[in-house]
Each structure stands twice: as C-alpha cells, then as structure tokens.
Amino acid sequence: MENQEKYVEAADLAQMKSELASLKYILSEKLQVEDRVIRQAMTGRQRDIDRRVTVVMALGIVAMLTIPWSFGRMFEVSVAFMVMTELMMLGGGVLTVLWQLEFRWLNFATADLVQAAEVVARFRRRYANWPKIGLPLAAFWLIWMLWEIYQADNTMMFVMGGGCLVGGLIGGVCGWHINRSVVSDADEILAGIAELRN
Amino acid sequence: MAERDEFARLVREQKDTIYTVCYMFSSDADEVSDLFQEVLINLWRGYRQFRHESSVKTYVWRVALNTCITDDRKRKRRRERQAGLSELNAALYGVSDAAAASGAESRQARLLHDRITRLGLFDRAIVLLWLEDLSYEEIGAIVGISARNVGVRLFRIREALKDGGAGRGSR
User: Fold this and answer.
1) Assembly ipTM
2) Is the Cα torsion angle A64, A69, A71, A76 positive or negative in sign?
3) Which one, A191, B37, B93, B153, has the greatest CB density within 10 A?
4) Preferred mutation among A12, A25, A38, A107 to probe B, highest tally of B CBs within 10 A
5) CA of B27 to nearest chain A CA: how many angstroms apart?
6) Among residues B8, B10, B37, B32, which one has the least CA distance to residue B21?
7) Interface residue A143 vs chain B (CB under 8 A)
8) Which long-range contacts (CB under 8 A, 24 or more apart) does A38-41 make?
9) Taking a C-beta distance cutoff of 8 angstroms, is the pair B74, A185 a contact?
10) What is the pLDDT of residues B18-75, one digit of tens each?
11) What is the pTM of this model?
12) Cβ of A194 under 8 Å from any chain B Cβ?
C-alpha cells in the first residue's frame, strides 16, 4: 500500500514536471520578446509608487514655500495657524521620506522572498494606516481654518473653505476605497509569511 | 553598451522562466504582460550588482518571484496593452490558431496553472522551484527559510495538491 502511494505520488510529480516542460516549451518556442520591451525596462523608469511619492513631495515643498505668503497676506489668518500648517506638512513629509527609504533600499536581486515581502507589506500597511493619524489632523486643521474664516469675515476665505470641504469629501471617499485595497494586499502577504514561519 | 547587450541576451535566454513565473502568479493575460515588464525592470535594476555571484538561473528566479509576490498590480493595473505580448494570449489561451501551440500542450499548461494557482503565494514559489529540480538548500536560500522547513512545506503542498482543493495560506 505504501509502495502504491509512493508510486502514485511519483507519477503525479512526473506529470506536473511534464506539464511544466510543456508550458516552458510553449513560451520559449512560440513567444518572442520585442526589443522595445527590453529597452523600456532599461530606461530607468521609476516605479509608479516612487513617482507618486516624488510628485507629492515636490508639491509639498512648493506648498510649504507659498503658504506663508498666500495665507498670511491674502486671507489674514493668524500666525499660529500658518505655523501649525507648516509643521503638519513638514511632519508628513519627513514620515513619508523615512518610510520610503526602507522600501527604496530593497534589492530584489539579493533579498530573499520573505525579506522582500515583509518590507513591502510593512510599507503598504504603514501607508494605508496613515489616514488614522492624517484624517483626525485634517479634521482639526479644517475646523481651525473655518474658525479663522469666521474671525476674518473675508469673502475669499468663505470660497476657499467651501472648496476645501467639497474637495475633502470627494478625495476622502476615493482614498478610502484605495486604502482598503492596499491594506488587504498587505495583510495577505503578512499572513503568508506568518504561515511560512510556522 | 556591452552590458545592455548582455542583459538583452539574458532576457531572451531566460524568457521562458520569467513568463512561467508571471503566468503562475496572475489571473489573466493582461496581468502576465504587466508582471513580465515589472520583472524586466527589476532584473535590470539589480543587474549591475549581480556580477554573476550566483547562477543566472537563481538570479532570475529570485527577482521574478520577488516581483510577483510583492507586486501591487491590483492597484496600478495599466490600461495600455503591449502589442508584442499579445502573442502570450494566443499561445496560452488558444485565441489565435496561428500562434497557438498544439491543443494538448495548452491543456497541460492550463492544468498546471489551475493546480498551482490554488496555492498561497509562497507555496507557489516553493513548488515552482521544486519542479525546476532545485535542491532544498537552494530553494530555502531563495525563499528565506531553512532547508528543513522547505521539506515540511513541500509535504503540505503535495497533500494540498493531491486533495485538489485550495492550498493553505493566503492567495
């Protein structure tokens, strides 16, 4: 009986190897890799996520440089509000850079699968959990801004406040869906790592 | 220039391995195309540091598996299709008679895909490396677990494949 089971297992393994050989035959004989595809890989294109973060960081720096002028001179907001806004943006920028560094240093050529998956999953989880800190701070900032609007009695501020509210609601809903998908992916990888180590 | 030519040659020599890995970690032809491009990018990024310290085969397997397991293609699915890779659709899904392999070969490939994609991400990687006749030590070095752990995982994977049901672990 034991010999029969081993025979069945060996036959099953042989069948899978045969299936794999068929697949690789199809792929090696029937498919060609165009030069264009290889050239695209070698152009040093940044990964999508790197590009997104770089753009956000650049916008953040521009915003930090223009906020004192725009808020202070145009909307007559308090110095405390301007400083708080600058600190929030600075804090967000520093955290983003710190999280990115571990991810950017990851080398797929030398890291084993568990190492690489752990780094990526942790990065995504932190990125996805950011709203837990960011949303309360954003709400606090919005409330303070509305208070500044009320104090200033400035028409432009009313317009700006209204725009921020509408934009915030739309962005919040879209961001929530993306966020849940990212967390789900990260959790899947972390669960796989945990099982592998058991 | 010589380095680029070398890299292009490596890609053409190893394309069946890269495509196989991408195929086993995707659910449709578009994802295979996306993953293939991502693997090439990561292979190029690590190529200068590679310097043949390990075998080419190990290098390609490691990068391809790392890319497929960590890829977040569900979020950043690209809309543009790469015309050159549409041949993959034809060959593997039998869309076009002109490019398709024989029916038996395609069926076998799809059977293997159906069995392996039921497994979790890491189990898929382990079983693919095992089918390539890599030793337990080599598999362990690529995955990041001990050779003994590889043996234990393979036993569980074989049981899962025999049952024909969903493998343990996440998909």
Assistant:
1) 0.72
2) positive
3) B153
4) A38
5) 15
6) B32
7) no
8) A38/B7, A38/B8, A38/B11, A38/B40, A40/B37, A40/B40, A41/B11, A41/B37, A41/B40, A41/B41, A41/B43, A41/B44
9) yes
10) 988 998 888 777 788 888 888 998 898 888 777 666 788 889 999 999 999 887 655 3
11) 0.71
12) no
B75-100 pLDDT, tens digit each: 344 433 444 445 555 555 443 333 34
Contacts of B125 in chain A (CB under 8 A): 113
SS (H, E, C) A131-180: HHHHHHHHHHHHHHHHHHHHHHCCHHHHHHHHHHHHHHHHHHHHHHHHHH
For residue A71, give the nearest of A89, A49, A92 by alpha carbon: A89
DSSP string, B99-125: T---HHHHHHHHHHHHHHTTS-HHHHH
Touching check for A48 and chain B: CB below 8 Å? yes
Residues A53, A46: Cα–Cα separation, whole Å: 11
User: Is residue B38 within 8 Å of B71, Cβ to Cβ?
Assistant: yes
Q: Return the half-sphere exposure (C-beta side, CA atoms, 13 A cut-off) of residue A30.
A: 26
Q: Which two three-digit tokens encode residue A50?
A: 């790197």
What whole-number distance in Å separates Cα of residue B24 and Cα of residue B160? 17
Residues 6+ apart with CB under 8 A from B24: B68, B113, B116, B117, B124, B128
| Chain B interface includes A111 (CB < 8 A) | yes
**Chain Cα centroid distance, residue A179:** 9
Site of tokens 């032809």: B29
CB atoms within 10 A of CB A20: 20
Helix (H) / strand (E) element for B122: namely: helix B121-131
Amino acid at B47: Y
* Contacting residues of B for A19, CB less than 8 Å apart: 108-109, 111-112
Return the SS3 of B158.
helix
Q: Can you tell me the distance from the alpha carbon of A46 to that of A40, in angstroms, rounded to the nearest whole number? A: 11
DSSP 8-state class, residue B75: T
What is the spatial distance between Cα A87 and Cα B102, in angstroms, rounded to a whole number?
65
